[in-house]
Design brief:
The complex is a heterodimer of chains A (290) and B (265). The longest helix of chain A has 18 residues. Chain A folds into 2 domains: 245 residues, P-loop containing nucleotide triphosphate hydrolases (Rossmann fold, 3-Layer(aba) Sandwich), CATH 3.40.50.300; 43 residues, no CATH class. In chain A, the strands form 2 sheets. Chain A has a 6-stranded mixed beta sheet. Chain A has a 4-stranded antiparallel beta sheet with strand order 2-1-4-5, with no helix packed on it. Chain A is globular and about 70 Å long. With 290 residues, chain A is of the alpha/beta class. By secondary structure, chain B is mainly alpha-helical. Chain B has a domain of 153 residues. Chain B has a two-stranded antiparallel ribbon. In chain B, a hairpin with a 4-residue loop joins strand 1 and strand 2. In chain B, helix 2 packs parallel to helix 11, helix 3 runs parallel beside helix 6 and helix 3 runs antiparallel to helix 11. Chain B is flat, with a radius of gyration of 23 Å. The two termini of chain B are 46 Å apart. The chains are: A alpha/beta (290), B mainly alpha (265). The structure holds adenosine-5'-triphosphate and magnesium ion. The site of magnesium ion has 4 residues of chain A, from helix 1.
Chain lengths: 290, 265
Amino acid sequence: MDIKLQQVSYAYSKGTPFEKYALHDVELSIASGTYEAIIGHTGSGKSTILQHFNGLLKPSSGTVHIGDRVVEAGKKAKELKPIRQKVGIVFQFPEHQLFEETVLKDIMFGPMNFGVSEKDAEKRARELITLVGLPDNILEKSPFDLSGGQMRRVAIAGVLAMEPEVIVLDEPTAGLDPRGQKEIMDLFYTLHKEKGLTTILVTHSMEDAARYADRIAIMHEGKCVLTGEPRALFADSATLAKYRLEPPRVVRFQHKVEQMIGKKLSKVCLIEEELAEELGQAIREGRAEQ
Amino acid sequence: MMEKMIFGRYIPGNSFVHQLDPRSKLIFVFAFIIIVFLANNIVTYAILLAFTLFVILMSRIRLYFLVNGLKPVIFLMAFTFILHILMNKEGAVLLDLGFMKIHEEGLKQGIFISMRFLVLVFITSILTLTTSPISITDGLETLLNPLKKIKLPVHELALMMSISLRFIPTLMDETDKIMKAQMARGSDLSAGPLKDRLKAVVPLLVPLFVSAFKRAEDLATAMEVRGYRGGEGRTRYRQLKWDIKDTMSLVLLLAVAATLWLLRN
Ligand SMILES: Nc1ncnc2c1ncn2[C@@H]1O[C@H](COP(=O)(O)OP(=O)(O)OP(=O)(O)O)[C@@H](O)[C@H]1O
Ligand SMILES: [Mg+2]
């Protein structure tokens, strides 16, 4: 399912003294099957933009295409529910949405809203709880007795249980332990690779954006200022700095090394493994020259 | 959704009304509520309305925002107006529509009652729109201070009020967030039969209560670790200052009240 935003602007509290434009003429298109990262300084409009992806917010002006559905400013959008099943959103701090008596029931809440039978919903819940890395017996517990990290995983399972075609993640790992962060990010990456799930990740971690994303969009003061492939985008520190961002640690490290040895590596490396390989190559070449 | 309501919100500004001491504003509003009942004919109601518009002008709050933000209240007003026209059968018949007659008294009373409603809502809204919640509580606490003698826990009441006022916007934001999260999971608050809609409230209320209790607990802990011990001997950072402006505005109100008294039937 492709998602396309054309000239989208959005104002909070429109028509009151508190009116505030959070998006200005945003142009963005995300092709089906891509892993897209949206990065940007805090308050740049990332959370606002992603609520347009399933019709939770309607643009103040402009149009949003979600698959073959069109949400247009000023027009009444009817029956958005089918869209919400196809585009799942994991909000910032999703643990706040838990409410059922048991974890099992909470995970089943989403699919059952979309007409999945109780039996199938339970089956999905049992599969997913293992997938998100929690023990089976947690299903019978109250969600309010879990730790923050466990609640987060349950909330994520609750969104995955709807079996969406597009998954939108708003800083899904904020506040988790480093190991847990990696597990969650790897889980989404596996789903993306194996099931072809279109994934949209809002993140403050340049490392995650570099490691997982096919494409990156940069938000700055309510505008989508730049889109492109991670390698090209992260090579240009000067532009990033203009938008109050920094390249990932690996890239910064590479720049330092290149300065010290007075030689450019053959490409910008996005992850540690790549950099290790390139450096090994450079060292071997260096020896051969001597 | 709830963004449009301006009832109970504060718009920072620097107008004459903004600069007044909260105490004088509170006295003004309470006195005004009584004075409104002095009006009982066309002239006095006209004066009342003109005076209200003058106060709005002095507050530099745009009339458009006021009317727009108070739409639900204005709807209620229209309702009482129509009710009066339908029910009151005194005085000469002004208009005969066959199935119903509009009587002179009915029309008059309808207009008067809705006017009374309108000026009251406008003036109280101007109070909350031009005074920060903290100042309102400070003002109220100072005004009620004499009641401490009869063992009324004035400080505690004021604190409760300021905490509630402080958390209204937070809770509204929270409601909005949780509502969106549940809508994204397919729960539907605005469609379907009533039974389903009522059911859809549970996923909203449970997380809201959980977070409200958690917030309350955190706040209590935070206050305790910072050594809060209640109102006894507590000094103030914000000092209230009674100005010539405050006296002036109350004198003006007194003048209006006297005029109404003279011109009423
Ligand atoms: N409910 C709201 N009412 C009014 N203004 C809002 C609301 N939500 C967000 N804003 C404003 O809109 C702008 C964009 O906010 P948004 O939440 O989209 O930022 P963000 O990029 O997600 O930031 P962060 O990285 O901190 O999550 C901000 O300036 C914010 O103050
Ligand atoms: Mg955000």
